[in-house]
Known about the structure:
Blueprint: E1 6-14, H1 21-30, E2 45-53, E3 59-67, H2 74-77, E4 86-92, H3 96-113, E5 121-127, H4 138-147, E6 151-154, H5 163-178
Amino acid sequence: MSQKGKYVYKILVMGDTGVGKTSLVLRATRGKFPDPETLMSTIGAFFALKRIIMEDGSLCSLQIWDFAGQERFRSFMKNLFRGANGGLFVYDVTDPITLDDLERFWIPTVFEQIDEYEKPIFFVVGNKIDLENRLVNPSEAIKLARKYGMNYIEVSSKTGENVELLFYLMAENVHKRYKRRIV
Ligand code: GDP
Ligand code: MG
């Protein structure tokens, strides 16, 4: 088998506490929805690896960084944003405040830390679409994504709907944009 190269990309996962960031990362990297009873509130940050084989045969490892949403960790987290190739701004489709907080806090905080020329690939991600009590109209979230030149997708970390697709699209996009920079 021919070796087409290996690439590592850094992907940030951001959004308020409770939107399902840790569940999304664990669904993507371990293939199952974690038992809510055992989900501890993430302290600081951790990362998990997701390996994806691209159409050109390259192996992309996404280093997916899961951040805690607590205000008290936010100032120290900022340093960890640097060098990101991609980012997910996650909100909960049943909680409009979590969408507002993306524009109020998460997007400006990340943009402050990232050099303009780096141009990471960003997605706005609506999570928990398995729930009946959706309160956010997708058109509002799409409007936000467009405003900042981001992609938009809706997922369920619980059922797994669109989760593989999301990370495949992310890998494809970052790989296209960054691969020439990596020797
Ligand atoms: P985080 O604080 O953003 O990391 O969120 P967690 O992953 O800890 O999830 C917060 C709560 O939302 C937990 O009770 C999860 O089980 C639940 N949750 C996460 N994703 C989903 C989802 O897609 N659907 C449903 N119904 N619940 C979810
Ligand atoms: Mg968490």
